[in-house]
Amino acid sequence: MLDIIQGLFRPLDTDGPILFWAKEILGALLILAIFWMLAQLIVMALDKWGKRLASFTSTDLDDRILHRITPHVSRLLVTSGIYLAIRSLPLHEKLILVFSGVLFIVLVIIVFNLIYHAFDELLQWYIAGRQHDTDALISRHMIPIAEKITMLFLMGAALIVILKHFNYDIFSLVTALGIGSLAIGMAAKDTLAHMISGFTLMLDQPFRIGDRIQLSGGQVGDVAGIGLRSTKIKTMDNQLLIIPNSDLCNTMLINQAFPDVRAKGRINIGVAYGSDVDRVKALLVATALEVEDVLRDPAPEAYFVSFGDSALDMSLFFWVEEYSRLFDTTDKVNSLIIRRFTENSIEIPFPIRTVIMEKGTN
After folding, report:
1. N or C, where is the chain less crowded by C-beta within 10 Å?
2. How is it placed in the membrane, per its record (predicted)?
3. Judgement on whether residues 156 and 27 belong to the same structural domain of the protein
4. Model pTM?
5. Where does the pLDDT of residue 21 fall: very low under 50, low under 70, confident under 90, or very high at 90 and above?
6. Between the ranges 24-33, 231-240, 263-272, where is the mean pLDDT highest?
C-alpha cells in the first residue's frame, strides 16, 4: 500500500507528509483565490469602467460585445487558476497530465466560445444597421448560415490547437480530411454546386425573400425562402415552386421588386379608323386617373402605337404603388375604359377582312 501511495505522489518533504501536503494545498488554494479575485476585479472593472468608455462611442457595438464576453472572461480566469493550481500540486506526472489536459481543453473551449459570441454580436449589429440596405454584404437571411460556418471554423481551429497541445500529428489529420473531402466532393458534386450557388445568391442578392420574380419560363411568384440547395417560390396560384440554386444562378429572371415595389401597367387597345386620336389619348389618361390605385406621379400616359389591320393601336401606361396591386388595378381600368368608350361613342372594332371574289371567265 505504501508503494502505491508513493507511486502516486512525489517524494515527501522531511517535515512530514501532513505538513508538506498542507503547504502544497495551501499554495494551490492561494493561486485559485488570487485568480478568483482577479476575475471578480476584472468583471467589476468591465462593468464600471468598460461601460463608461463604451458610452463615449457613437455606436452600441462595444456595449453589446462587452455584455456578451464578460461572463466568458470570468470563466477563463477562474479556469486558468484551477489549471495552474493543479499543476502546482506534487502529484504524479500522469495525474498532472490528465488533469491539466482536461482543463486545457476546457480553456480552449472557453476562449473559442468567447470569440464566437463576440463575432455573433458583431454580425447581429451589422445586420440590424442595414435592414433596409440592399447593398449590404450580408443579408439578415444569411445570419444562420454565417453562424454555422463560423462555428464549424472555430471548432476546427479548437481541435487543431488541442491536438497540437497533445503532440498529435496535425498534418496527417489534415491530409486525411483533404482526401475525404475530395471523395465526398466527387460523389456529391451536384449538391455542392447547388450549395455554392446558394451562397452566390445570398451574397449577390438578385432577389430577397418576399420579392416577386418572373422566371425565364414565364412563371411568376414570390420568393418564400432561400436555402443552401434550393429556392422556394410561391406562385400566383398558391403552389410552391422549388428550384435548384444552380439553375437560378444560370438563368435570366425579372425581379419586379427592384429598384422599388412600384409597378408599371400597360393596356393595349384598338379603336376604329376615323377616330380622333388626340381625343382617345386624353380619354384614356382621364379614365386611368379615375381609378384610385393609379398613381398621379408618375402620371398615366397614352400613345398611338401603330396602324393595325382593323384598328388604330393605342397603349395606356400607368403606375401602381405596389406590384401586388397591378392585376386588380388593370381589371378596374379595363372595365372603366369600356364604359367611357361607350359613353363617348368610341368604337373598338372587330377584326375585319375584305374578301373580293372575281367572277371567272370561260
Report:
1. C
2. Multi-pass membrane protein
3. yes
4. 0.51
5. low
6. 263-272
151: exposed, middle or buried (Cβ count in 10 Å: 0-12, 13-18, 19+): middle
Nearest-5° angle of CA 172, CA 175, CA 178?
Answer: 150
| Side chain identity at residue 190, one-letter code | D
C-alpha cell at 307: 396602324
> All 3 cell numbers of residue 210?
418576399
- d(C-alpha 225, C-alpha 211), whole Å: 10
**Chosen domain end from 144, 167, 190:** 167
Shared domain check, 129 and 98? yes
Cβ neighbours, 10 Å, residue 13: 13
Domain that holds residue 54: 2-167
The alpha carbon of residue 44 and the mean position of all alpha carbons in its chain are separated, in whole angstroms, by 36
What 321-327 contacts at long range (C-beta under 8 Å, 24+ apart), as own/partner pairs, is 321/261, 321/262, 321/293, 321/295, 322/261, 322/262, 322/263, 323/212, 323/256, 323/257, 323/261, 323/262, 323/263, 324/212, 325/263, 325/293, 326/263, 326/265
Instruction: Indicate whether 247 and 132 sit together in one domain.
Output: no
Q: Tell me the three cell numbers of residue 120.
A: 455573433
Residue 291 CB partners (closer than 8 Å, separation 6+): 329, 332, 333, 336
